[in-house]
């Protein structure tokens, strides 16, 4: 009885074609991607039928956590004249100026390194009295990780507060820090941003869909007090409805 | 002589890179909803205040659904997606109607409570594909009939090509611009009877409820609406409604 001989085939698969496909896919993703910016809290925005696209430049984004903490992001023009880095430094100067008017006994000031660090931040939001200490972390080893921890509320030091202080009761004569920041953003040299904020497209509120109305109302009320009556709410696209 | 290069490690590496880029990207840009609020400043001159007439006004109150029983205040959470469940109430005209909600000495007049409960529902679609509004959308649409009829006529004109051809992208945009202009004229037409909607929300209700109601304004072409604070009468009406409906 003769045995059936099974031919031994090589298991070598030609991966060239596969490689071609993956490189194509990779190119596609590299070209289309816009990176998610790191945020101190993750929120799921509510769905809406509105199809208006969000403005990417010249916008101040107010990130609201369900607990009522607030962080800001400022995206400026793409032009060199009003670049992000330049305007950030100016914003910090302006807000310090406004803050010092009402806190004459405890003024804040920032040195060149701290300003430099601020211009590189994504979302920001610590009380101004702690801002200097926060920005100085950038020069320390592992400083960026420490800053992220601070903003995310995971700092081991309980005195390190994250979120811009905001109050329910507010008036134009006695601004809280959140209002100071918004005012400062309106006063920077970037005329495009100032115009966008006037039209309402320049201020965007990003909040989680389960945030209570109490908190949203507080933010809206604070904006109204400083005559920022128009603004936009960030939403996700709702499918199905008209 | 044949040279063969093994591409397997190359593919591995590419796959890793693709995974990295896929996880780090946002494909969908967020949408925005623009709102304009009235100024917080007190109006000095009473005559300058524009008052909505009671016939036109509808007040919508958003409230979070609470668990009944001995622990009031605990919010009901959707078991599937973990979202806060909102309830929609509304009333026409003034709280308590013409009689008002409060009698002499601040007594609550339950019989005057004109609060009604409604729901946020998406359209019922029948087998032919016709949409039928339900819940709060139906109520708003009934009130805004005049405007919606005209808007729907304009929409038909748009699809029939009366605003210009819809073939190329540029033409489509031009037609859309013309349509939007005409639609906005209809929405602001003073001769048409249209409601003024006042949106209120209890502090516990979630932000999603507010955006949902603002959406309804857009869907139903409401030109006059505002977000206002909850008054005492509103609160009393909500409590009274719950008491009488065992909720």
Short descriptors:
heterodimer; A: alpha/beta; 5-stranded mixed beta sheet; 5 strands; 39% helix; elongated; B: 247 residues; alpha/beta; two-stranded antiparallel ribbon; extended
Task: Describe this structure as you would to a colleague.
The complex is a heterodimer of chains A (242) and B (247). Chain A is of the alpha/beta class. Chain A has one domain (47-237). In chain A, 39% of the residues lie in helices and 11% in strands. Chain A contains eight helices and five strands, in the order H-E-E-E-H-H-H-H-H-H-E-H-E. In chain A, a hairpin with a 5-residue loop joins strand 2 (59-64) and strand 3 (70-75). The termini of chain A are far apart. The mean pLDDT of chain A is 86. With 247 residues, chain B is an alpha/beta fold. Helix content of chain B is 35%, strand content 15%. In chain B, the strands form two sheets. Chain B has a five-stranded mixed beta sheet with strand order 4-3-2-7-8, with helices on both faces. A two-stranded antiparallel ribbon of chain B has the order 5-6. In chain B, helix 5 links the parallel strand 7 (196-201) and strand 8. The longest helix of chain B has 20 residues, at 169-188. The mean pLDDT of chain B is 81. Chains A and B meet through helix 1, strand 1, strand 4, helix 8 and strand 5 of A and helix 1, strand 1 and helix 5 of B. Strand 5 (230-237) of chain A pairs antiparallel with strand 1 of chain B.
């Amino acid at each position: 009885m003769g045995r059936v001989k099974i031919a031994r085939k090589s298991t070598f698969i030609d991966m060239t074609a596969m490689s071609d496909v993956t490189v194509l896919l990779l190119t596609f993703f590299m070209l289309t991607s816009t990176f998610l910016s790191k945020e101190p809290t993750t929120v799921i925005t509510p769905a809406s039928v509105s199809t208006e696209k969000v403005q990417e430049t010249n916008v101040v984004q107010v990130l609201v956590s369900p607990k009522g903490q607030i962080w800001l992001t400022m995206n400026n023009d793409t032009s060199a004249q009003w670049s992000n880095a330049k305007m950030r430094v100016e914003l910090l100067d302006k807000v310090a100026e406004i803050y010092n008017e009402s806190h004459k006994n405890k003024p804040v000031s920032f040195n060149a390194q701290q300003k430099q660090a601020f211009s590189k931040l994504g979302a920001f939001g610590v009380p101004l009295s702690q801002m200097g200490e926060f920005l100085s972390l950038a020069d320390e080893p592992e400083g960026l990780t420490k800053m992220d921890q601070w903003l995310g509320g995971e700092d081991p030091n309980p005195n390190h507060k994250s979120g811009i202080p905001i109050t329910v009761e507010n008036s134009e004569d006695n601004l809280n820090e959140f209002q100071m920041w918004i005012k400062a953003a309106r006063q920077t040299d970037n005329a495009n941003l100032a115009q966008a904020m006037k039209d309402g497209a320049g201020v965007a509120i990003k909040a989680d869909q389960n945030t209570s109305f109490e908190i949203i109302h507080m933010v809206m009320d604070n904006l109204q007090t400083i005559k920022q009556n128009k603004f936009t709410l960030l939403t996700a696209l709702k499918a199905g409805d008209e | 002589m044949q040279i063969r290069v093994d591409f397997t490690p190359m593919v591995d590496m590419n796959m890793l890179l693709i995974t990295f880029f896929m996880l780090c990207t946002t494909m969908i840009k967020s949408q925005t909803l623009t709102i304009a609020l009235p100024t917080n400043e007190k109006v000095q001159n009473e005559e300058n205040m524009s008052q909505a007439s009671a016939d036109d006004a509808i007040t919508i109150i958003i409230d979070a659904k609470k668990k009944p029983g001995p622990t009031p205040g605990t919010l009901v959470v959707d078991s599937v997606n973990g979202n806060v469940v909102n309830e929609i109430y509304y009333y026409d005209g003034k709280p308590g109607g013409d009689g008002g909600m409060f009698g002499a000495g601040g007594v609550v007049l339950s019989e005057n409570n004109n609060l009604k409960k409604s729901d946020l529902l998406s359209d019922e679609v029948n087998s032919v594909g016709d949409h039928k509004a339900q819940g709060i959308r139906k109520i708003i649409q009934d009130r805004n009939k005049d405007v919606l009829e005209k808007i729907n006529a304009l929409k038909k004109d748009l699809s029939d090509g009366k605003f210009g051809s819809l073939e190329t992208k540029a033409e489509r945009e031009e037609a859309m611009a013309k349509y939007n202009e005409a639609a906005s004229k209809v929405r602001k037409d003073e001769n048409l009877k249209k409601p003024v909607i006042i949106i209120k929300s209890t502090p516990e209700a979630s932000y999603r409820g507010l955006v949902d109601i603002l959406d309804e304004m857009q869907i139903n072409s409401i030109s006059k609406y505002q977000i206002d604070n909850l008054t005492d009468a509103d609160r009393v009406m909500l409590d009274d409604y719950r008491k009488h409906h065992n909720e």
